[in-house]
Amino acid sequence: MAPPPAKVPDDKISPTRLLRRVTLALSGHVPTIDAYEALAKAPDAEAVIQKAIDDGLASTAFYEQMVDFGHQWITTGAFSTGAMGDGYSGNMSAHMGQCSSTSLHPGAWFVYQESPVAENCCDDKDEMGNPSPAPLEVVEPWWAPGTQVTVVGWATKKDLEYDDGGGKMVNCASAATLYYNAGSTAGCGCGPNLVWCYPGSGLGSGSSLDDKQQRRHAWDEPARLVAHLAWHDRPLSDLVTGNYTVANNMVRAPASASPGRGILPIRRTGPATLSRPPATAGSTPSSPTAPR
Fold first, then answer.
1. pLDDT in tens, 68-102
2. For residue 185, how far is the Cα from the chain centroid?
3. DSSP states of 199-264 as a string?
4. How many CA atoms lie within 13 A of 195 on its CB side?
5. Which of 99, 178, 209, 218 is the most buried (most CB within 10 A)?
6. What is the pTM of this model?
7. Nearest to 249 by CA among 214, 291, 222
């Protein structure tokens, strides 16, 4: 005797529960009271749920969710070791400080040389303390496109290469003698748009969660790549086969602007947008800046 046909359970999820699940997954928060009320009044609950999905995928909150997922899925250790002063072995940009409010050039950025005499240029003096008018210039910095800052001293230099004294031209973007000092008197300075300098102390010794440090942004890079793929419907295989990575301005410019170093193309994150352009092979769309 044949067994009776299996009864299909009537356990379809309710519209309100489905709305909650969709909203939590895509934005990280529960639906609002207004959203529940709109669902209750709607003649077509399925259309309301579909709109919630579309709106969620188009929201920058979804990008935030994907960054968090990227951190959980691809765990990256904290960048807790390495030089914490100026740039060693080419792995960090030269650091910059700001002239004191009592100097001749208050607020101007100068190249920090791990020496108190580095700030002499703020008072138009050389390293020996002798009067020496320092060059002063207003530039658009890589870390804040569309704005301007004042730089003084060696920071104003834009040479792309220099003579090592023996007739050999050295690329300013490369490390020299295992100690990369972009502000050295040999010649380089901070380069175009200050791309070889960093406005602060670089990796530092603080937490990888401190968004004021390069350590945080280097730690974020793999997670932002995951978010970029989700935001633009790129194939997950791009994590391995893609010829690009994703980072914000705090790690983007010093790497991508340095000639001859074999760095992958870097797509910046930002500005925030509520619409996503269609991603096509070979395109370079921007990801939204997720407030962190």
1. 999 888 877 665 544 444 444 344 567 788 999 99
2. 30
3. SS-TT-SS-TT-TTSHHHHHHHHHHHHHHHHHHTT--TTHHHH-S-EEE-HHHHHHHHTSTTS-PP
4. 17
5. 99
6. 0.56
7. 214
